[in-house]
Design a protein that fits this description.
The chain has 76 residues and is of the alpha/beta class. The chain is built from 2 helices and 3 strands; from the N terminus they run βαββα. The protein has a single domain (4-72), classed as Rossmann fold (3-Layer(aba) Sandwich), CATH 3.40.50. 34% of the residues lie in helices and 22% in strands. It has a 3-stranded parallel beta sheet, sandwiched between helices. α1 links the parallel β1 and β2. The longest helix is centred in the C-terminal third of the chain and has 14 residues, at 59-72.
């Protein structure tokens, strides 16, 4: 069974690079990002991408969204 991980900041090139590395090692990679369109959204290395509130505008909403994703997908 694969380990699920969650990366944030899907618009950053380094996040896409990390996603590819984790996928190569057998991880299931999920990404949370506050922008609708980002680098990781169309990557085959990403299991699923989630739109979350902007942390600098809605800190509590951002934390709650991450917690829901973590719980729903058993993120380690």
């Amino acid at each position: 069974m694969s380990t699920n991980i969650l990366l944030t900041g899907g618009r950053a090139p380094v996040t896409l690079h990390l996603a590819r590395l984790f996928k190569e090692q057998g991880f299931r990679v999920f990404v949370a990002e506050s922008e609708k369109i980002h680098l990781c959204k169309v990557s085959h290395s990403i299991e699923e991408s989630f739109l979350v509130p902007k942390p600098n505008e809605d800190h509590e909403g951002y934390i709650q969204a991450l917690c829901r994703i973590i719980n729903k997908y058993n993120i380690s």
